[in-house]
Design a protein that fits this description.
By secondary structure, the chain is mainly alpha-helical. It has two domains: 7-159, Up-down Bundle (Four Helix Bundle (Hemerythrin (Met), subunit A)); 166-247, Nonspecific Lipid-transfer Protein, Chain A, CATH 3.30.1050.10. The protein has eleven helices and five strands. The strands form two sheets. A three-stranded mixed sheet has the order 4-3-5. The chain has a two-stranded antiparallel sheet with strand order 1-2. The longest helix is centred in the middle third of the chain and has 23 residues, at 133-155.
């Protein structure tokens, strides 16, 4: 069983993931910022606008939880009235690419400073149930990695996976029940073990040895599935019927139920 890293290490990994994406963005021309990404209706700039908006919100949730909670009802009412994209992205879409990049840097710097104040045991309010400090920073790391996937795929840029994926993999495993509840489906009582090969070659495992089913394969593939960036059929993951039932619904992030991309392959993923 993989033990979660401490908050300081997690914070460092979040900062590193953001910096890795920044390096790619810094070299883009204006036309590349407006290329369509796999997220329907979003270009590269929208992906960064989304990160900038919610990094700023995350900083507020940490440093001034009462203010965040007080503004939450207005946020939800506005989103219901005009839609999430219109509410969170309209101001971002008015910025030129260089201005947008500067805004993301500013907002993530605010999050960076706020994250440095977190301590174990602290809970942070968010759009739904409050989250532990560890889960909160993990969710921010997952966001930048997942939206970075869309951007890099659009640009045709290859990314070398890192062991920072351990945070996303663990979150993906822990949100198995959530993936069913968010759809209003009963959570299967049967258990699953997760055995992933890390980018550095280590074996990461979660779950009991005598679990009813096992999901095996590369950690990157698992992270792509639970963040809904890749269909199970288009990965090297191997599992049985129970694991497949979960991974076809997997959703490691909050919000309403969403579906991942359609398969590019027709293969059925089965147990070894």
């Amino acid at each position: 069983m993989i033990e979660p890293r401490d908050l300081n290490a997690l914070h460092e990994d979040l900062r590193a993931e953001q910096a890795a994406l920044d390096v790619v963005l810094a070299s883009l021309d204006d036309a590349q910022w407006h290329l369509a990404t796999p997220s329907p209706g979003w270009d590269v700039a929208d992906q960064i606008g989304h990160l900038a908006y919610f990094d700023r919100a995350a900083a507020t949730a940490i440093t001034d939880p009462d203010r965040f909670t007080g503004e939450l009802e207005g946020f939800l009412e506005a989103v219901l009235a005009v839609g999430m994209d219109d509410y969170t992205l309209t101001a971002m879409r008015a910025l030129a690419p260089r201005e947008l990049l500067a805004t993301w840097r500013e907002h993530r710097a605010a999050l960076d400073a706020a994250a440095a104040t977190l301590r174990p045991g602290v809970r942070v309010p968010w759009y739904g149930p409050s989250m532990s400090a560890t889960s909160f920073l993990t969710a921010r790391l997952m966001e930048v990695w997942a939206h970075g996937c869309d951007i890099l795929e659009t640009l045709g840029v290859a990314r070398t996976p890192t062991d920072r994926l351990v945070h996303i993999a663990q979150l993906g495993f822990l949100t198995r029940a959530w993936s069913y509840r968010v759809r209003g489906e009963p959570v299967p009582e049967a258990s699953i073990r997760l055995e992933l090969t890390s980018p550095s070659g280590a074996l990461w495992t979660w779950g009991e040895l005598d679990a009813d089913d096992v999901v095996r394969g590369p950690a990157e593939d698992f992270c792509l599935v639970v963040t809904q960036r890749r269909h199970l059929n288009d990965t090297s993951l191997a599992t049985g019927a129970l694991g497949r039932h979960w991974l076809e619904r997997a959703q490691a992030f909050a919000g309403g139920a969403t579906n991942g991309p359609q398969p590019r392959s027709t293969r059925g993923t089965t147990a070894d």
